[in-house]
Write a structure and sequence with these properties.
single chain, mainly alpha, about 0% strand
Amino acid sequence: MRPRLFAGIWFAVAGAIPGFLYGIGSYRDIWFLSLCPALIAGIWGSFWWGASILTDEQMTNGRAVLRGVWIAFLSWITFALVWAIGFGWHDPVEGPNFMGLFWLIFLFGSIWMGWLMALVGGVAGWLLYRVARRLRPRLRYGDLPVMAAEWARPQTEEPIKTERSET
């Protein structure tokens, strides 16, 4: 499986968790608060920040956690913007007020659910890093630096001699 696809699916599943936990009481809310953030987190996770957790040889536990938190933050900003644009059209009194609604959603949502989004993003990044260490040989372009390092290593063993009769 390609690293970008794998990281995108990984962060999409993680992105659905906060919305699912919030929308447990309402079936309608689960669809909007879980599927939309999952799609957004999957898109952000498939870009450079998520895929590099799988392919970067210099990646550490701490950097993977920070990448996961960064993906969660970008996903939250994008979701708040989508929410503000979606619901900003329906204000019959003032008309569309996207920026006011965006800041309202972003600030109150960050206070209310920001800690959970950062926690889920950080844990997702850390777990992806831990899984990546085991999956690295199966990744298509993530294993090229590893294979190149193995090919460049000098051979210390003697060539295998076969017993052939030369006549």
